[in-house]
Specification:
The structure is a single chain. It contains 8 helices and 12 strands. With about 250 residues, the protein is of the alpha/beta class. An 8-stranded parallel beta barrel has the order 1-2-3-4-5-6-7-8, surrounded by 6 helices. Helix 2 links the parallel strand 2 and strand 3. The longest helix is centred in the first third of the chain and has 16 residues. It starts with a strand and ends with a helix.
Length: about 250
């Protein structure tokens, strides 16, 4: 069975994904920073008003994945709160200053997640790690349930050769979830060439909000996005991608 996981930035995104037929989402906030820990309010509303399986990001800041002990204390607290409020799993990633998988932090969060009988997902911090292929053995040993990866490249299409290797060698020990740049035009090629049955995509469209600018103030995301716009999950794009993967 092919699975689409929709990357959502809040409650409205999740409603759109659910209406389009998605069954699983990764819930974040601040997607323009690569995704941060979501609010409890968004999680509670989603669990109350949809049947979605919700994997919550646990990430306190943007940029890298080497966290101080103070940051990790916050991560652990956020993780418990999300799990206690209905998260079906957590998405996380920890690297050392040398860009190796941080085994101790990963172990602690995996054990916490599994104590709630939920799913532990190591996210694309993996794609920035050293000796990445060898690192999968460590994730397997730590009992990580799923690995979100673009095959060590910017997009999954570019990294499909590595994704195929990961699926062939490790696919029976850990779920491989391909993500980044997935769209209806390339998804079948990626899945057919790699053997991977799960994909992760944002399926967004731009919405204009001109109140981001006024007088001499400007709160738009520019230059990352056109001025006065933000991204929302498009119900139509989710439907398109679901149709493509289920052909």
């Amino acid at each position: 069975m092919n699975i689409l996981e929709v990357c959502c930035g809040g409650y409205e995104d999740a409603l759109n994904a659910s209406a389009a037929g998605a069954e699983r989402i990764e819930l974040n906030s601040a997607l323009f920073l690569g995704g941060l820990t979501p609010t409890l309010s968004s999680l509670r509303l989603i669990k109350q008003n949809t049947n979605l399986k919700v994997i919550c990001m646990v990430r306190p800041r943007g940029s890298g994945f080497c966290y101080s002990e103070v940051e990790f204390q916050e991560i652990q607290n956020s993780a418990r709160m999300l799990l206690e409020n209905g998260a079906d799993g957590l998405s996380f990633g920890f690297l050392t200053k040398n860009a190796e998988i941080d085994l101790e932090k990963t172990r602690k969060i995996v054990e916490l997640v599994h104590s709630y009988n939920r799913e532990a997902v190591f996210h694309r911090a993996f794609d920035c790690s050293t000796a990445a292929m060898q690192s999968i053995y460590k994730l397997v040993d730590l009992k990580v349930d799923r690995l979100l990866t673009s095959g060590l490249h910017t997009t999954a299409f570019e990294g499909r050769r590595y994704l195929q290797q990961m699926q062939t060698v490790f696919g029976q020990q850990i779920e491989i979830l391909a993500g980044s740049g997935i769209n209806p035009a390339n998804v079948l090629q990626i899945m057919n060439e790699t053997g991977i049955k799960q994909v992760h995509a944002s399926c967004t469209e731009l919405i204009s909000d001109q109140t981001a600018q006024g007088n001499q103030a400007d709160f738009s995301y520019w230059p990352m996005q056109p001025k006065g716009s933000h991204e929302v999950v498009s119900e139509f794009k989710v439907e398109q991608l679901l149709s493509a993967i289920n052909k």
